Protein 1
Amino acid sequence: MSDDSDPEEKTEAASERRLQQLSEDGNIPMGRDVAAVGAFGAGIATLVAVSERIGGHLVERITFAVTLPGRAQSFDQYLPLLGLGLVIVAAAALGGAIPLIVQTRGRVWSNLAIPDLTRLWKLERLTKIFTKQGLTELGAAVLKVAFFAAVCRNAFSEIFPKLAELIDAPMTELVSSWLRILYPATFKLLGGVAVLAAVDLALARWKFSKDSKMTREEARREHREDEGDPMVKSRRKKKQRELAKHRVAIDVPRADAVIVNPTHIAIAVRYRKEEGGAPRVLAKGKGALAEVIRDIARSNGIAIVQDIPLARLLHKRVRVGGFVPKETFKAVATVLAHVYRLQQRK
């Protein structure tokens, strides 16, 4: 991720648009060591699963070589061992690929798939080692190697004496005994690699979050682009108001009543049993649009009823064209019953 801006000026969190752009360019936080954990874990698990079969084949080959030293073994006799070895390798490859697929969400970036050989000859790659970032990465690599070396020492220091005791063990028990002794060490190594992978992933995400930040000017510019030109935005709002007025001019005359609050909100409702069995909101509005709804209602002889809580609730909960909520059935029915009585008196 390259940017000419001073990192100290980047104080704003990356916007959704910027993150999307970075993702399209293949710039995402990646934990490289996570793949090593997957490969190592899958390989060890597969080795454990097929260890008895491997041990049996190894004993057969060693016994054959010891008992018949002058007789050559054919290649076909080693095929079962090679097949089991390929199974372990394939499992390790799949275990390493899955974490990468999960992190990239299965996406492939063609611009990154082909290696750029010109980067190998750039002098700036050599001088980058002596920068603050290069020295930090070098220090992190040294710490990683030192930690893994300590894990290896701890894992294998306890098993060497046990391995020495197997010199006089029977041939049939030798392979299984070796594997039984090595299992604890391999699990310790897997735990050490998992710790390194977790730290690496956390650092990668922290670095990505830091590098993807924006300056205030970039954030303001992007906001202006998203919002559009103020004049265009004003014309858009004017057009929306005109369309809203056109819709209410058609829908309000079909209403049975308009519920108001008393000047800020107006809700036009209608009830017909054959239209769904519940009152429906034909139009609603606040401010200027509410005034338009009231004017249309007056000119068409539609009753206007003031009910502040009901008007607020309907405006907040019901979209235009939707049925009123069940908890408002009784209140709306009371309003409509009052309107119907007034119409009968006329």
Protein 2
Amino acid sequence: MKKIEAIIRKSKFVEVRNALHEADIEFLSWWDVRGQGNAKQGLIFRGIAYDVNTIDRICLSFVVRDQNVEKAIDTILKAAYTGESGDGRIFVSDIAQSIRIRTGDRGDESLYNKQ
């Protein structure tokens, strides 16, 4: 099992979420995040200085079976792509154990409903 975390543009969130759903990745968590990129600039508007070095993004997080990792990564790459600097990052981590609280299912079986 792998945990995939992707930091993407807010404007691409709905597109990425819908694409993941179509790729059979139906459970994911997300939250608003802020970060700092390579840009070093400020903005002055009507005499007030604004810091525009921080960037608003969304972080997606979900766990998939090993056989679904590449499909999930490819889906995010296609849906989140704009070709401009700041499209985001994808991180993949190993998951040692997964347990469904309600049933006690462990491992891959705990990730999705049995069919």
Protein 3
Amino acid sequence: MTEEKPAEKAVKEEKTTEAPRTRRFSENTVFVGAKPVMNYVMACLTLFNSGGKNVVLKARGRAISRAVDSVELLRRVFLKDLKLQSIAIGTEQVTGREGQTRSVSTIELKVTKP
């Protein structure tokens, strides 16, 4: 067995403690998918009632309309003082099952409660 020098050991320790690079989302993010609109409304209400001042709804593809419906339902029925702070739209490249790439529209809606 060979002994490692202290400098080499430190380098190896740094590599093992380094986290893989992934997207980081905050705790106040709701990802909108195929579930009913009320599920996302309730998720947002839960975040607001737990002390959050803002919530971000993210959706892509066919779920975009569900995200917009969720925000509108929140604003018009549940939290009348809710403000739509920002809207960000974009496109992501997604690789399909057969290896082909396609573009998918995305939306990010940030709402705040005063």
